Each structure stands twice: as structure tokens, then as C-alpha cells.
From TrEMBL:
Pfam families registered for this protein in UniProt: Usp
Residue ranges of every copy of the UspA domain listed in the record: 15-155
Domain of life: Bacteria
Protein name as it appears in the record: UspA domain-containing protein
Family to which the UniProt record says this protein belongs: Belongs to the universal stress protein A family.
InterPro entries, per the entry: Rossmann-like_a/b/a_fold, Universal_stress_UspA, UspA
Length: 155
């Protein structure tokens, strides 16, 4: 095989809409992913979405049958998303939308949130040394393989 010269011009790559997945436990990798997404959205002056997913499979059977338990979790997640949206706006991102979903995080984000928001970049955290939160860490691979847009996994 001979040497092959690669001839192309480097083109700048920007994104028009960014979605970041954050977990309900606010893990360090989730915060880093959020910080990265906010920085990009602010630099590119583009809209940003923030999504978190309530994993109903994590609830005990007893809790899942208690409407007040589910409602309390939903309410807590709603307040959490509001905080993320406000922090992004305070950082300078003009357009920020919050999303709350329920189910298996990777699947719900790929099948529901991405088609709804239509980002061209998904940013998510990956499990860190802290093993207390598996929300995004266990789902990052699924999202990277199945998302119809680019995916950046932040550690």
C-alpha cells in the first residue's frame, strides 16, 4: 500500500440546538455535562434543552402504587429542572426549555425527548467513581449508539 495524501479543508463545526441529560440525584458527571452544554449553548447563542428522567422501575412496588409518592417525586424533579433552566439563563443562554420524562432514561430520551426537541447535539454525563448514581452512566452507551444526533459524553 502506498501513501495516500489526505486533501480536505477543515470546516468549523457548530450546533444549532443542544440537549443535556441530567440525573435526579445531581451527580458530579451530570453537573459537568450541564456545565459543558451551557458553555456551548452560550458560546454558539443557540437554544438548549435540559431533560431528566424519573426511573419508575427504581420505585418499590409499594411506592409505585402510592399516588402521593409518585407525585412527590415528580414535583421534586420539576423543581430541579426549574433550577437548571434558571442557572442556564443566568449564565447567558437565551432560550432554555426543561423536560421531565418517565421510564428508562436512554430509551425515553432517544425515542421521545430528542424527536420532541430536535437537537443536533446531546450532552450526557457518564458514571464517575461515585457509584451511588447509575442514571446516565448506565445509559450513556445506549444514547451514543441510538441517538439520531451527535452525542458527547462528559466525565
Amino acid at each position: 500500500m502506498g501513501k495516500r495524501e489526505i486533501d480536505f479543508d477543515v470546516q468549523p463545526m457548530t450546533f444549532k440546538k443542544i440537549l443535556v441529560a441530567v440525573d435526579e440525584d445531581d451527580s458530579s458527571s451530570s453537573r459537568k455535562a450541564f456545565n459543558y452544554a451551557v458553555t456551548l449553548a452560550n458560546s454558539y447563542h443557540v437554544p438548549m434543552g435540559v431533560v431528566t428522567v424519573l426511573e419508575t422501575s427504581d420505585l418499590s412496588i409499594y411506592d409505585s402504587l402510592q399516588p402521593n409518592v409518585l407525585e412527590q417525586r415528580r414535583e421534586a424533579m420539576s423543581k430541579s429542572i426549574d433550577v437548571y433552566v434558571e442557572k442556564a439563563k443566568n449564565f447567558g443562554v437565551n432560550s432554555v426549555k426543561g423536560f421531565i420524562a418517565e421510564g428508562k432514561p436512554g430509551k425515553v430520551i432517544v425515542q421521545n425527548t430528542i424527536p420532541d426537541f430536535e437537537p443536533d447535539l446531546l450532552v450526557c454525563g457518564s458514571e464517575t467513581k461515585e457509584k451511588n448514581s447509575i442514571f446516565i452512566g448506565s445509559q450513556a452507551s445506549y444514547m451514543a449508539q441510538n441517538a439520531p444526533c451527535s452525542v458527547i459524553v462528559v466525565r
